[in-house]
């Protein structure tokens, strides 16, 4: 029979919506960025609902260290208007905007923490039997399409931006089976950066066509299939009737039917019969905190694995110009592997080098950035090699301006224009509205008191005081002199701010007008004339907590007429553009340079 939706009381004695029965859940544990990894090792998944967001700290730690390599959070409901919600109790998006921080502000950080251990992929699952999510998706796609103006596009784009650790969407459609809209929806998700994982228990020809069509339009988007082999899917055999070509099938079992030893026996049989390379368990809610998570993960890993190793490390590394930063890489032997693993790094930006220190299971990659290293974000690949076996791990490297007090330039005094409290010491509580009026601010610890961007010095205003300029067309006096450029450290707030105007006036009565777009501090757009100034791992909130996502302060360079003497600059007439520091850059070769 199909899975049904029931309510039960979880171990915290809270009502939690759970779909029991056939509902699949899987896991494919893949997260290494290269898709070929499927052919190299086994993958194990764990499906769970409320324990991933309710009083989740201990549960996140358990799964992080369990041996499972994918966590699937279940179940995303899609309303008739496109709003997304977990189990009717945790709103995720509304009207194309992420609203989850109003309910579980630590949730994005929890999802990121999962991937600091054995979990390499975080997947959200959509649907269950007889509930209507997929019918709503079909109606919305038919009415609005899947382009950037559609609500589904906006909601899933907002979800990805709010939760960078989210990698994939699981399709648990058990009733609708509308292939045109499902295929369009899957391609849309692929274009937004998601992988797609069909979640099947019957209708094999339907799902074979969906996977084929999605991957024809956007190769690699659907990179695994979750096959329910319990409840309504009892009797399913991944080796018989479920051939998706190069796309692997990951069968799932239910803890209420099978002990860890029984799971290992069944999975071993399938592995011997047709070479399955992974599987999953339904349902973590049944055995939270009992130690069974690690036992079930070990059972599947042992059944489908070959000797090898896994790599684990940080999702992001932040390094400043003229400085170094480290990434600790953990190498875990799997299924009796005893080889020596060598690490290499690729994808480094200009001006950054990497060296590997240490041997054995704990190695450290040391990144060194020169004074002129290219700032911004790069996706790096850490490759572990042992003989013919390789594994890869992706991480984001963010390069920022140097920390220091020595640099060139004539700093612009903005003190009289400061009208926002944009910088606070960590742990501060305040009621000033912060940088954006909503209580958020830059961290004084991460920003520091001054930065040197490609040799140019910028000094910030004092923390916990007025220290930022919300622009309103102010005219700021500049130190008289001839300069090659005016540079700002600034950001947009409340969204990206396009085509803003700045005007520099010279003493001879002439002026130069500039048009510049400013990225929101959370969503860098890499506009022309915009560089990463300072990338930060979190921002502060007015209740003393941290919003542990990446936030940015951008550098802008406006070329001046070096033959003329500057008088003033008129800032944009937009309070959603905020300036924290400004410096005039000397003419190269001028006296003293």
Overall average residue pLDDT: 90
Shape descriptor reads elongated
Percent of residues in helical segments? 10-25%
Strands side by side in the biggest sheet: 3-4-8-9-10-11-12-13
Number of strands: 38
In short:
The protein is α+β, with helices and mostly antiparallel strands. The relative contact order is 0.10.
Question: What features would you describe in this structure?
Answer:
The protein is α+β, with helices and mostly antiparallel strands. The chain is built from 9 helices and 38 strands. The strands form 8 sheets. It has an 8-stranded parallel β-barrel, surrounded by 5 helices. Strands 23, 28, 30, 33, 36 and 38 form a 6-stranded antiparallel β-sheet that branches. It has a 4-stranded antiparallel β-sheet with strand order 14-16-19-18, with no helix packed on it. A hairpin with a 3-residue loop joins strand 5 (84-86) and strand 6. Helix 7 runs parallel beside helix 8 (292-304). The radius of gyration is 26 Å and the shape is elongated. Residues 1-41 have low confidence and may be disordered.
């Amino acid at each position: 029979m199909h899975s049904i939706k029931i309510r039960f009381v979880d171990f915290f004695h809270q009502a939690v919506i759970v779909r029991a029965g056939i509902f699949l859940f899987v896991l494919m544990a893949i997260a290494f960025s290269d898709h070929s990894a499927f052919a190299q090792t086994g993958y194990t998944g764990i499906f769970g609902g409320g324990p991933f967001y309710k009083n989740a700290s201990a549960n996140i730690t358990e799964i992080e260290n369990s041996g499972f390599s994918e966590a699937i959070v279940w179940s995303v409901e899609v309303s008739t208007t496109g709003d997304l919600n977990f189990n009717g109790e945790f709103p995720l998006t509304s009207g194309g905007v992420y609203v989850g921080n109003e309910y579980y502000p630590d949730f994005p950080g929890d999802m990121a923490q999962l991937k600091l251990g054995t979990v390499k992929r975080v997947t959200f699952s959509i649907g269950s039997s007889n509930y209507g999510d997929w019918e709503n998706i079909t109606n919305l796609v038919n009415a609005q399409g899947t382009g950037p103006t559609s609500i589904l596009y906006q909601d899933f784009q907002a979800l990805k931006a709010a939760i960078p650790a989210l990698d994939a969407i699981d399709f648990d459609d058990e009733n609708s089976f509308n292939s045109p809209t499902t295929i369009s929806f899957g391609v849309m998700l692929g274009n937004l950066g998601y992988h797609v994982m069909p979640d099947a228990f019957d209708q094999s020809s339907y799902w074979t066509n969906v996977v084929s069509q999605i991957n024809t339009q956007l190769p690699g988007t659907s990179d695994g299939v979750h096959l329910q082999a319990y409840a309504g899917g009892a009797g399913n055999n991944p080796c018989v009737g479920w051939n998706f070509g190069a796309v692997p099938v990951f069968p799932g079992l239910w803890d209420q039917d099978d002990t860890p030893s029984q799971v290992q026996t069944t999975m071993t049989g399938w592995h011997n019969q047709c070479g399955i390379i992974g599987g999953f368990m339904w349902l973590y809610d049944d055995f939270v905190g009992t130690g069974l998570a690690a036992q079930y993960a070990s059972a599947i890993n042992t059944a489908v694995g070959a000797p090898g190793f896994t790599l684990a490390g940080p999702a992001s590394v932040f390094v400043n110009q003229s400085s170094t930063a480290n990434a600790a890489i953990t190498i875990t032997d799997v299924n009796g592997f005893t080889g020596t693993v060598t690490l290499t790094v690729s994808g480094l930006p200009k001006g950054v080098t990497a060296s590997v220190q240490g041997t054995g299971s704990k190695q450290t990659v040391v990144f060194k950035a020169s004074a002129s290293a290219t700032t911004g974000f790069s996706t790096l690949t850490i490759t572990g090699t042992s003989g013919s076996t390789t594994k890869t791990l992706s991480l984001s490297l963010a390069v920022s301006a140097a920390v220091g007090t020595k640099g060139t330039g004539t700093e612009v005094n903005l003190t009289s224009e400061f009208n926002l409290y944009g910088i606070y010491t960590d742990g501060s509580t305040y009621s000033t509205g912060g940088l954006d009026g909503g209580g958020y601010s830059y961290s004084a610890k991460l920003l520091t008191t001054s930065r040197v961007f490609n040799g140019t010095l910028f000094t910030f205003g004092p923390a916990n005081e007025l220290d930022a300029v919300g622009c309103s067309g102010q005219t700021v006096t500049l130190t008289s002199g001839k300069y090659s450029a005016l540079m700002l450290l600034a950001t947009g707030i409340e969204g990206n701010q396009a085509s803003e105007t700045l005007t520099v006036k010279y003493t001879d009565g002439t002026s130069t007008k500039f048009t510049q777009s400013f990225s929101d501090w959370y969503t860098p757009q890499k506009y022309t004339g915009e560089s990463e100034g300072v990338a930060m791992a979190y921002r502060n909130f007015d209740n003393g907590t941290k919003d542990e996502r990446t936030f940015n302060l951008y550098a802008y360079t406006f070329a001046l007429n070096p033959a003329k003497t500057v008088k003033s600059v008129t800032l944009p007439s937009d309070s959603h553009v905020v300036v924290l520091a400004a410096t005039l850059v000397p003419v190269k070769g001028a006296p003293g340079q």
